[in-house]
Amino acid sequence: MRKRFIADATCPHCQQKDTLAMWRENNVDVVECVKCGHQMREADKQVRDQIRSQEQVIGIFHPE
Ligand SMILES: [Zn+2]
Question: Quick one: CA dihedral 34, 10, 58, 28, positive or negative?
Answer without folding.
Answer: positive
